[in-house]
Design goal:
It is built from three helices and eleven strands; from the N terminus they run ααβαββββββββββ. The protein has one domain. β7 and β8 form a beta hairpin.
Amino acid sequence: MRLRLIVGLVVVAMACLLSDTGNAIAQDSSCSLPGTLQTAIKTRYLSTRLVTLADLGKEDRAFFQEDHGNDCPGLVKVDFYGDGKPTLALVLVVNSGGKESTELVLAHEVAQKWETVMLDNAGASMPVVWSQGPGEYEEFNSEKKIRATRPVIVFCGYGSWQVLYAWTGSKISKIWLQD
């Protein structure tokens, strides 16, 4: 009986050690990152994980799935720079001292290394990300427009706000689609 208990405890302890839950990036298949990017994210953004469908409230999950099926709400592949190199927009849940916040991070593979830049943060809300095609986008309540010649990134807190990011050839531009 004791031997069975000890073996059971060892198996549980090994599973906990191997899962690395403290710094885990979600392992949902739709939320899988390339291995080299996963390593870069774990190194640069400690105590983070991708937003998954499970993180979204019932209504937000329904909104997301209506337009994006079972895609990962915290990850989208996008040819943002128009160079054909792997580029991913990530929504990371950051756990800092027991408080959660979210960040939008853009990861771009250049010369077999991932370059990352934080584009935005959204406090404790659970936003999602997706990509839309090139086109003309207009900021709400403003005359500001972006004419995107490449796919854009949309960062969205359902029922609250929506921000669009576009590469203009020399910098990343941002407009509010909804606030």
